[in-house]
Design goal:
Elements: H1 3-16, E1 19-27, E2 30-35, E3 39-44, E4 58-64, E5 67-73, H2 74-77, E6 90-98, E7 101-109, E8 111-119, E9 123-124, E10 138-144, E11 147-152, H3 154-165
Length: 166
């Protein structure tokens, strides 16, 4: 079976089972998940070309097979303290919908964790935190293997601020 056919078959199987697959990653000790269908690739950290007058969380750009890809630091995007990048630091390259087209963005995270199937039954709504913390980018919370995973709406996260700033 070709890779594309395998991927389509796997996608059909996950949808028919009533679950979605999420790639999870670690950020400041918490586990976050994004829809695996948005993930293009995972790369090790490499230096970027800095772009002047961009927000602090936009680290710069890389050339990915002829495409200029903005790289954002999710720690800084979420207002978390920065850390030194290590051997486990990776860039998750994702495709996001932006103004009826697709854009490619790289997100620096502390480490990649797992791929999980998350069923609708295990997903919970984001609790109301009284406006103290913005939960706009959180699609929901899921409990998998007795741990809580924060599921992100990657399109909303990137389109609110990031692509407007790049």
């Amino acid at each position: 079976m070709s890779t594309a056919i395998k991927q389509n078959h796997a996608t059909d199987m996950q949808r028919s089972a009533g679950s979605d697959q999420y790639l999870t990653f670690i950020l400041a000790g918490e586990e976050y998940g994004i829809d695996i269908l948005r993930v293009q690739e995972i790369r090790g950290w490499e230096p970027v070309t800095k772009i002047p007058n961009t927000p602090e969380y936009v680290l710069g750009v890389i050339n990915l097979r002829g495409t200029v890809v903005p790289i954002i630091d999710l720690r800084k995007r979420f207002g978390l303290p920065g850390v030194e990048f290590t051997a486990t630091t990776v860039v998750v390259v994702v495709k996001v919908e932006h103004q009826k087209t697709e854009r490619t963005i790289g997100m620096v995270v502390d480490a990649v964790s797992e791929v999980y199937n998350v069923s609708a039954e295990t997903m919970r709504e984001t609790p109301d935190l009284g406006g103290a913390i913005s939960t706009d980018y959180i699609k929901g919370l899921a409990t998998v293997d007795e741990k809580m995973i924060i599921l992100l709406d990657i399109n909303l996260l990137v389109n609110t601020g990031v692509l407007a700033d790049v």
